[in-house]
Specification:
This protein is an alpha+beta fold and 201 residues long. The protein starts with a strand and ends with a strand. It has four helices and 13 strands. 17% of the residues lie in helices and 30% in strands. Strands 10-9-8-11-12 form a five-stranded mixed sheet. It has a four-stranded antiparallel sheet with strand order 2-1-3-4. The longest helix is centred in the N-terminal third of the chain and has 15 residues.
């Protein structure tokens, strides 16, 4: 069965956000999985339906060698106040896949928490659907060991809003709070969690 890949792009009031970073990741995934495929420009391939030109939507681009489907779904933010560390040293999510069985299995381990932080080889990586960032009182930091380097993460790194470093579970209490960023959750509207609400058990 072919592995279907995915880009999820923020569409707000008729505008697609961080498209250059999505294009870079889209190009990289297609080069590595389908090296003979011709380049496709997302900006030329995505047509925003009239009914999606007001409000917040997830634009889902499903693709293999070519784009298979483009979908738009209304988006609502999940409330996230508690995180739980879960360990998996084998998980591999270098590319954004439409099927995420292993991530979903780990998410089921969250217990009474709202989301998870995945620990791989002793380092913090990602949550279920986001890259974490941590605030030390002066600066925001993101782990330099993401499972999937997100487009919002790339945007914030390039603009100097966050920096990357190694973050282990024992480092977490050095920070004051954590945020979760992804294509839909920008720095301004991400959930922010007190590190005391991160379960280490």
């Amino acid at each position: 069965m072919p592995v279907e890949l995915l880009e999820t792009i923020k569409c707000k009031d008729g505008k697609l956000y961080n498209l250059e970073f999505h294009q870079q990741r889209f190009d990289l995934a297609r080069r590595q999985n389908f090296p003979a495929a011709k380049r496709i420009k997302l900006s030329e391939s995505i047509q925003i339906p009239e009914k999606c030109r007001r409000g917040l939507f997830r634009c889902r681009v499903l693709y293999e060698k070519s784009i298979e489907k483009i979908e738009f779904h209304p988006h609502q933010f999940r409330k996230i106040e508690h995180l739980k560390l879960v360990v998996d040293d084998e998980i591999d999510y270098r590319f954004k896949y439409s099927r995420r069985q292993k991530l979903e299995e780990l998410f089921e381990e969250r217990g009474d928490c709202d989301d998870i932080l995945i620990v791989k080889n002793g380092c913090i990586t990602d949550s279920f659907t986001a890259n974490p960032i941590f605030f030390d009182g002066k600066h925001w930091w993101t782990p330099d060991t993401p499972l999937l380097a997100g487009t919002q993460r790339a945007h914030l790194l390039e603009n100097g809003i966050i920096s990357a470093c190694k973050i282990t579970p024992s480092d977490i209490l050095k920070y004051q709070k954590a945020g979760l960023i992804n294509a839909l959750q920008s720095f301004e509207d991400m959930p922010v969690i007190d590190v005391k609400n991160i379960s280490m058990d």
